[in-house]
UniProtKB/TrEMBL annotation:
Family per similarity comment: Belongs to the pellino family.
Residue span of region Disordered: 320-341
PANTHER family assigned: E3 UBIQUITIN-PROTEIN LIGASE PELLINO HOMOLOG 2-LIKE, E3 UBIQUITIN-PROTEIN LIGASE PELLINO-RELATED
Pfam family, any one: Pellino_RING
Annotated Pellino FHA domain residues: 15-272
Molecular function GO terms recorded: ubiquitin protein ligase activity
Entry's Gene Ontology BP terms: protein polyubiquitination; regulation of Toll signaling pathway
Organism of this sequence: Lates japonicus (Japanese lates)
Segments forming domain Pellino RING: 277-428
InterPro entries noted in UniProt: Pellino_fam, Pellino_FHA, Pellino_RING
Protein name: E3 ubiquitin-protein ligase pellino homolog 2-like protein
Sorted UniProt keywords: Phosphoprotein
Length: 428
């Protein structure tokens, strides 16, 4: 998963490497539409590097002229620059840390970025380079620092070091000096984190917080890019837990620990569930044809025996023309069925009529249960426990709103967010 990215790199996994965990972008259902390639993919595995590349704060410099700044930056060390005014900049130098590995995430395709994250909310056109396409995700959005020794704690920090090994907070950026004297700040659109409790056995949502450049935890600003930071969240940590969510303002990432992944269902298990469901030979109660979910991983095109569902009641059918469509309404494709309102021939309920698609991203499942529920209105199918958890998990949307979305396609959910599927068995 962690592919080479530059000559002489030190991030190629050694034999039997320690796996810290994985970051999974919500909304891609297992892979990017154009396929996972290199550092641009839907999930990123973090392994212990062959050689530590972590850094930690060391010297602090207060600079009063641009020449002073050039002298500090020419040393080739990592640094964070806090511009306080036209005549004063505080530069915090970072030195090598043998005990940590650093991984950087962002929209940029430059070499310091380990995981290139694309916007799942519509920023940029298909085929465009995500580093230049319109997007609210920062080019150097955040960094994850993992301890190389047990318990391999992973911590999240806002902002990443650029090609000059610098993080630059300009004069207009939100920044401050803490009581202990060290400088800190926030990125323009912020890095938000939510740590759930008891994930995945008995998951309960935590509070959304904002992470600073130095890894402190704050309450949210009034708006996403507001000028004033929130209140310091005393006693809270930037350490990621199994199931933690990281929002980059345009994409939300799910963190699964190495230990958590060992307990999570696998793609092979999901395929076994699909085969078991198809082996029960569910039928369309109108056409009496046998239905079957497409194989995993699947294409995005509809198949002849694809199951469809009336979301208002959960009755599963094959594709048919029962019920009335409004004039000029097009046939829905995946995730486009919310406008196709039909009357269910079994119970007369009227509502969206959409094709069903199995959720193919194992990391978002909270259990290994049977695929019995579908998200509304997109029609992605998963276990009941998984559907309920994500329907009750609001994700950041816009500057100050939150809403639950389908973890497989990022479609906003309609209350209550899911429906129980009712299959018609074969008539003997």
């Amino acid at each position: 998963m962690n592919s080479p990215k530059k000559d002489g790199d030190d991030d190629v996994p050694v034999k039997d490497p320690v796996k810290y965990g994985e970051l999974v972008i919500l909304g891609y259902n297992g892979s990017l539409p154009s396929g996972d390639r290199g550092r641009r993919k839907s999930r990123f595995a973090l392994y212990r590097r062959a050689k530590a590349n972590g850094v930690k704060p060391s010297a602090v410099h207060i600079l009063n002229t641009p020449q002073d700044s050039k002298a500090v930056h020419s040393r080739g060390q990592h640094s964070i620059s806090f511009t306080l005014s036209r005549n004063q900049t505080v530069v915090v130098e970072y030195c090598h840390d043998n005990n940590t590995d650093m991984f950087q995430i962002g929209r940029s395709t430059e070499s310091p970025i380990d995981f290139v994250v694309t916007d799942t909310s519509g920023g940029g056109k298909e085929g465009e380079d995500p580093s230049i396409a319109p997007s609210t995700i920062s080019r150097f959005a955040c960094r994850v620092v993992c301890e190389r020794n047990p318990p391999y704690t992973a911590r999240i920090y806002a902002a990443g070091f650029d090609s000059s090994k610098n993080i630059f907070l300009g004069e207009k950026a939100t920044k401050w000096k803490n009581p202990d004297g060290h400088m800190d700040g926030l990125t323009t659109n912020g890095v938000l984190v939510m740590h759930p409790e008891g994930f995945p056995e008995d998951p309960k949502q935590g509070l959304w917080r904002e992470i600073s450049v130095c890894g402190d935890v704050y309450a949210l600003r009034e708006t996403r890019s507001g000028p004033s930071r929130g209140k310091l969240a005393e006693g809270e940590s930037s350490a990621l837990r199994d199931g933690s969510l990281v929002d980059l303002c345009g994409a939300t990432l799910l963190w699964r620990t190495g230990e958590g992944l060992m307990r999570a269902p696998t793609l092979r298990h999901l395929e076994a569930l699909r085969q078991e469901l198809n082996a029960s030979r569910p039928q369309c109660p109108v056409g009496l044809s046998t239905l079957a979910f497409p194989s995993l991983p699947r294409s995005h095109s509809l198949e002849e025996r694809q199951p469809w569902v009336y979301l208002a009641c959960g009755h599963v059918h094959g594709r048919h023309d029962w019920g009335q469509r409004s004039e000029g309404e097009e046939e829905p494709g995946e995730g486009e069925g919310s406008t196709a309102r039909r009357e269910c021939p079994l119970c007369r309920s009227v509502g969206p009529y959409v094709p069903l698609w199995l959720g193919c991203e194992p990391a978002v499942y909270v259990d290994a249960g049977a695929p019995t529920h579908a998200f509304v209105p997109c029609g992605h199918v998963c276990s009941e426990k998984t559907a309920r958890y994500w329907a009750e998990t609001p994700l950041p949307h816009g500057t100050h709103a939150f809403r639950p979305v389908c973890p497989f396609c990022s479609t906003a959910l309609s209350s209550p967010g899911w429906t129980r599927l009712i299959f018609q068995g074969p008539i003997d």
